[in-house]
C-alpha cells in the first residue's frame, strides 16, 4: 500500500511505537539468522545497525508482536539491499556481435552458466549466439563447452590446439562478425584461487575484445569467500554483474547479501542446478525470505498489515457515517484513487463502497478528471473545505476561476460530494442495525 496512504492512517490512529528494547531483542535473532545464512560478519553488523535506526520508534501493527514487526522491517531492508537493477536479466547485447566475458574461479560454474545463458538468449530473445572456451589450462574444458553446445543447439568456436586465450577471443570475434552472430560468449579458465596469472589472462582478453558484459560466476555456497573473490575480480578486471550458482543447494544464500553490500554489483542470475534450464533471473524477494529463513513470519506480518488497514478504514468510515465527510476527505479520497490507479483503491477497501466505486468509474472517471477535481478543492479556502455548504454563487465563481474551470464543473464536484456523504451516512444507519458490522468482517 502506498506510503502516503499509511501516512494518512498514521494521523488517524495512534499506534504504539517500537521501543529500543523491542528492536534490540528482535535484532539479536535476526543477526543469528544472517550469520547462519553465511552473511559475512561486517555486512551483518552494518545491516543490523541500519535496521536498528529505521525500526526504533516505528509504529507497531496491532495484530503482531514487536518482534515480528521488526522482522518485517528487516525483510524490506534486505530486499532494498539486494535489489541492484530493475531488470537484472537484461544483458547489454546491442551492437552485434556483443562480447560477453565469463569469469570466476574454477568449479564455480562458468562453463555451465555460459551454456545456460546462451540457451536462454537463443530461446527467449531469439539471438544467434557463439560460444568459445578460452580455457587452455584444462583440455577437457573446451570439449565440455562443445558438448553442451551440441546439447542446446548453440554453435561453439572450433577448437584449435595450442592457441592462447587472447588469440581464441579474437578468433571468436572474427567468426561472430562473419557468421552474423548477435553475441559471442567467452568462457575463461579458472583457478582454485585467485592468482596473478589468472587475473592477467582475463584482463588481456578484456582488453582484446572490450566486453559489453563481464559476468562473474560465483558459487553461492561459498559465503564469505565469495565476497573476497568478487572484490578482487571487480578491482582487477571490472565486473558488470554477478551470477550466483548452486542456489539449489542447502545454502541460505547469504553470499548474495554480502556481495551486494560490499561490491555493489548487481546480481543478475542464479543457477539452480546442473540442467541447462536451471537458471533464473535474480529475485531479491526470494533470496530475502531464504536468508531470513523466516518466510512465515514475514507473511504473517503482511497479513497483519492488511488487518490493520481494514481497521483503519473502519475508523475512517465511522467518522464519515457521522456525516463528517468534508471536502478535505474527498480530496484525500481522490488523491488515493489517483495514486492507486483507480477507484478500486481506498473506496474498494471500505466495505460497501465497492459498488459505488464502480458506478463512479463507469461515469467516465479518469485520471484527468481527478486532477481537475483536486484542483477545484485546492482553490477553496480552509473553511469552505470543511463546510462546503458555505459555497454561494460568488464564491463558486471565484473557486472555478481559480482552478481554471467552469462553475458547472464545480457543481458536478459538489454533487458528487453530496452523494458520497449521503451514502456514507445511510450506511452508518444501516450499521446500527448490525449490517455494517457484518460487512466489516
Ligand atoms: P567452471 O569450472 O567454472 O567452468 O565450472 P563448471 O561449469 O564446469 O561447473 C562445475 C560443476 O558445477 C559441474 O558439475 C556443474 O554441473 C555444477 N554446477 C554448475 N552450476 C550449478 C548450479 O547452479 N547448481 C548445481 N547444483 N550445480 C552446478
Ligand atoms: Mg569451465
Automatic annotation (TrEMBL):
Keyword GTP-binding: yes
A GO molecular function held by the record: GTP binding
EC numbers on record: 3.6.5.4
Compartments, as annotated in UniProt: Cell inner membrane; Cytoplasm
Main subcellular location: membrane
Keyword flag GTP-binding: yes
GO biological process: SRP-dependent cotranslational protein targeting to membrane
Taxonomic superkingdom: Bacteria
Record membrane topology: Peripheral membrane protein
InterPro entries: AAA+_ATPase, P-loop_NTPase, Signal_recog_part_SRP54_M_sf, Signal_recog_particl_SRP54_hlx, Signal_recog_particle_SRP54_M, SRP, SRP54, SRP54_GTPase_dom
Chain sites annotated for binding GTP: 104-111, 187-191, 245-248
Subunit structure of this chain's protein: Part of the signal recognition particle protein translocation system, which is composed of SRP and FtsY. SRP is a ribonucleoprotein composed of Ffh and a 4.5S RNA molecule.
Domain comment in the entry: Composed of three domains: the N-terminal N domain, which is responsible for interactions with the ribosome, the central G domain, which binds GTP, and the C-terminal M domain, which binds the RNA and the signal sequence of the RNC.
HAMAP family registered for this protein in UniProt: SRP54
Function, as annotated: Involved in targeting and insertion of nascent membrane proteins into the cytoplasmic membrane. Binds to the hydrophobic signal sequence of the ribosome-nascent chain (RNC) as it emerges from the ribosomes. The SRP-RNC complex is then targeted to the cytoplasmic membrane where it interacts with the SRP receptor FtsY. Interaction with FtsY leads to the transfer of the RNC complex to the Sec translocase for insertion into the membrane, the hydrolysis of GTP by both Ffh and FtsY, and the dissociation of the SRP-FtsY complex into the individual components.
PANTHER family noted in UniProt: SIGNAL RECOGNITION PARTICLE 54K PROTEIN SRP54, SIGNAL RECOGNITION PARTICLE SUBUNIT SRP54
Protein name listed in UniProt: Signal recognition particle protein
Species: Pseudooceanicola albus
Taxonomic lineage from the root: Bacteria, Pseudomonadati, Pseudomonadota, Alphaproteobacteria, Rhodobacterales
